[in-house]
Structure prediction request, 1093 residues.
Amino acid sequence: MHDGLVFNIQRYSLHDGPGIRTTVFLKGCPLCCQWCHNPEGIAARREIVVVENRCIICGECRDACPLASALDCSGPLPPRLADCTLCGACVDACPTGARQMIGRTMSVEDVLCVVRRDRTFYDDSGGGLTVSGGEPLSQPRFLLALLEACRAEGLHSVLDTTGFGRVEHLLAASALAGLVLYDLKAFDEELHLRLTGVSNRLILENLRELDRTHPNVWIRLPVVPGFNDDLEDLRRIADFVATLRSVTLVNLLPFHRTGLHKFRRLGLTHALDGVETPSPELMQRAVEVFEQRGLKTKVGG
Amino acid sequence: MQSAMTDRTARLRQDSLDARPAITAERAVLITEFYQANEGRFSVPVMRARSFLHYCRHKALWIGDDELIVGERGPAPKVTLTFPELTCHSIEDLEILNSREKTHYDVDEECLREYRERVIPYWRGRSMRDRIFAELPDEWKDAYDAGVFTEFMEQRAPGHTVLDGKIYSRGLLDFKKDIARALAELDFLNDPEALDKRETLLSFDIACDAVILLAQRYAALARERAATERRPARKAEWERIAEVCSRVPAHAPRDFHEALQAYWFCHLGVITELNGWDAFSPGHLDQHLLPFYERGLADGSLTKESARELLECFFIKFNNHPAPPKVGVTAAESGTYTDFANINIGGLLSDGSDGSNELSHLLLDIVDEMHLLQPSTNLQLSRKTPDALLKHALRVLRKGYGFPSLFNADAVVQEQLRQGKTLEDARAGGCSGCVEVGAFGKEAYVLTGYFNLPKILELALNNGFDPRTGKQLGPASGDPATFRNIDDLFAAYRVQFRHFLNIKLRGNNLIGRMYATRMPAPFLSVLIDDCIRRGRDYNAGGARYNNTYVQFVGLGSVTDSFTAVEQACFNGSGRSVPLAQLTEALRADFQGHEALRQRLLHRTSKYGNDDDAADSIMRRIFDVCVEELDGRPDPRGGHYRVEMLPTTCHVYFGAVTGALPDGRRAGVPLSEGISPVQGADRHGPTAVIRSASKMDHLKAGGTLLNMKFTPALVDNEESIEKWAHLVRSYFKMDGHHIQFNVVRAETLREAQKHPEKHRDLIVRVAGYSDYFCDLSRELQEEIIARTAHEGF
Prediction:
């Protein structure tokens, strides 16, 4: 069995597929979307974050750190320390839990032990497990093993993906999942590159392939004012999606600012600090673009 | 929901909201005058019944100009009676009631004068409260003063019961015939208790006369108003009111209006003869009213609109009746105007089929529209209850008024079967007060007071010494420095637990027998089976079933404290803290030990996260309660049982409990009900529910789980659907009860700043809802601090 690097397991997830779900977030993503609200999921390795308002400046992290004596600053350790070996001594020493290690190596069984706990809730509501990220396809062997184990236990599973991965991994994983949540961010290749750091060519090609084999795909499209809310680009996405037979729902996800504080915890700055939540009018116009093409469309997950 | 409040009910509602709670000495004076004139002339039960009759004959009546359902306990809405034979308020008590900021009652000069000149001189030393405190031993008083437990019956009578359907098919005159038959069958040759039974049955008969008389006086008053009324429509209403009041409750009601009025007179009777806890409740109102509703619609005498208006008038009547004033510890443990009348919606019929109907939905619409403090309402949700009714209830709850609370009707049946009730009686039962189960119309289920679990742990950590009062309160249960593992601490905890529980039960048994012999409740006894057949009063064990509860408080706090000790002191690692060092930090209220406190707060397992390390300890704590209490004989021939609910007592108990190993500082409120410590749950509602389901709910007579949702979590039909599944899943795991506050923290902050703008902001506190602005600052802060579960 292959272990995975997991950065969160979220119970009572209401917006990642049908029913009450548990979402498993796999760490590592080839995209770097400017509005990312899970920035701690981007790097494919463990990292340390600091929850600022929990820190009581007791200095125990510094006392515990084998490298701190070499530093010439004072006060609590910064989240990112050059030469940090991620030994975790500072995290273990922190009395308030302000310093946290993001990313935990888990086996399929470790993950399922958590997921199984809410079985009664899934049974009742038609829910189950959702694998998200990061980008789950960036840990393909673990992803497949996890989805296979779910199938063996009769747990409904959902794959939440950017589509940026090898097509054989995508098809193999989606074949095990009852539903695929597939992100689209922009139709224009230039725009996509600017927003996410990668071209969308592979993403669109993979979606066409997926469309040939899978019966149930929801398209998820974040709407970020000033970035991808150009109606012309939305129309081109909608035209494309309308040609697909597998798409049963389009989710338009209004940008929200909850991810911004996480950037600070990682010691990063955020390009979207000035961006506001899209207006209801903008969301309505976007919905109309899709509905006009006969696509069932919903605001929110 | 269609908005349908009529001008009339909108006006009556506003009048009820605007009326100021006040105290009248009227009842105190009438009862005093009767006792002075008749002392020694009658047996105790007959004396009680005759004094009740005296009050019903002479009390000032009040009818509102717009009312359809009539009858007030006092001389005007929200004017509350006192019961000096139970607790004789001192002038100082009355002045406190008049001047305190929260749960204030106006007390005028005349009331003070009557108390000073007539009431206090007679009742001081004669009241139940004075006599109870004279009887209780010092060890009881020391524990009470230290805040180990409280005592419900020190200011208010037992009660805690609910009516079944009997008054809708039979009138009080029919019950008088039953009484006459029982009297005729007394066997003075072979039954040595025949005389006692005769006096008891005579008291029942007089109590029926008293309530019939009260109704007839209202009928006469309505007739007078009709005679002088110029508006024809209102004149017809006055005449109708007169007709209804001359018919019920003497005879069985014939229609919807009479059915509601019949209950209301019975309610008034029960809450007037004594000040029993939880007022009185109509139980399965939707089920009881259905035949009248259907018949009225069929024969054209009733419309949906007129039925709704009558029900709204009926609801307002409850709101007009704040709880009788409480003082001292009892005011702290239950600091609210609400008197805990609670209406059941849905549930099962006694044959086991779904009991919900069209009126269940109508009641929910009324709750939604009127959002009054009283009555409380609850949904009895069985497997058989349609989803449509659950979702309707959730749409009402989403508004954030804290009603209705949600109960597992199937678990409620199982809990009662375990207590030895018949299947039919269990199904016809339900819940009342906060979360208590009962066989409606057939049971005396009496709550006796709260029991402070974290205080027991504090005593165990101090070898029986109470740091706050500076007394060696409990037995020496071992020096904590010698404890080698968590089991040693548990053993000391159990020693303290048993010691103080026994003190409490000895007190309860004494008080219970005092009520049985000195303070019967004849009118309530008429309404509860099998008091007439047995010729025995409700307070003396006349009910078919008898259970007596101790309500345990602080489950989350004590669990997290044990877990923290286990993980911080006995973890076997280099970071282990000696228990003696921890207890030293506790005595210092963590002054100079902040890093340790933070580690205890954040780095140990907490109940409410589906973490077996903490949850298995919760289970042990719960099991100790059941093992030590459940099934022991109570003073009415029944049994003691476990209840897990706090009302507002977790705030009072918190104030008298020192720092705890879970990192809580001295004086801070404890956890409430079976909810996790405020803010300790970090993994969302399914984890809380899983943790809470690890106790055996069926062995308690009620558990209370509180959860706060922000509106974003329940803002559309899809999330309501998932919310419904969440509730169903908890109940599948035998969860007894769950309730939701749907409110934004910023709304609460805003209400703290501008209470005048948020007077109608109702939040769920603990088994009941209250006006947020009426809560103490501490409790407000605590409500804000409870984890608001955000959507993910």
